[in-house]
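re the bet — no i am not wrong, look at it urself. input seq straight from the record:
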Amino acid sequence: MSQSNWTDAGQLQSDHVVIGGRTLAFDQIFNEAFFAPSKVKELSETFKHNTPFPYLVFEGLFSPVLLELMYSEFGSLRWSDWRCFDSINELKLGSRPYCRLGHAAQLYFNTVHSGAFIDILQQITGIEGLIPDPSLTNGGIHEIPTGGKFELHTDFNQDSVTKLDNRLVFITYLNKDWLPSYAGALELWSVEEGKCEAKIEPTFGRSILFYESSKSLHGHPDPVNAPAGRPRRSA
């Protein structure tokens, strides 16, 4: 690859990358303190004992610079790169599979899909043989506009192409200065008891990992009430 192409893709150097004029050191992409064996053991216990189904909330797992850059890239995607979901159950935008994401978003997904990161997820959850989906067919970046929502639901149990079981959901929120009055909190519901047992506000730098099954009922049924121009964004 020529030097000019490297520059176009974010100025890559030996120990850092420059995206949008901002420098991000490779060893600061995520907080490696979460990868310490004692911390992984603690997280695993929390994950397994949380209800209504196993889940875990991370605060500050990823670099704020990376997340700020990701947020700013939403407007650079072409309209054809988005899927629009508009029904009685949901109103949102999601990136299409295989679309060309911004450089910061691609760096984030490369990190989440890396062997080291997958290994930590396996240790935390006890699930062996995890395989990521680099096509982002059911992932990618998402935007919920004011008035948008996503009713309570369970995700697919098996990928329609690979036939692999869907085992985990991992989400990172990108919204600075998000207030509870804006709504849009992720709700985790008990199928057996028919009630919400956990609410996760979609605040900047917060990530959630949860186990996916036919009982993993989740969503944000309350429409987003943020001011105009403040959509709820996540990856």
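see?? Residues 7 and 18 are 9 Å apart (CA to CA). told u. also The longest strand covers residues 195-200. so pay up
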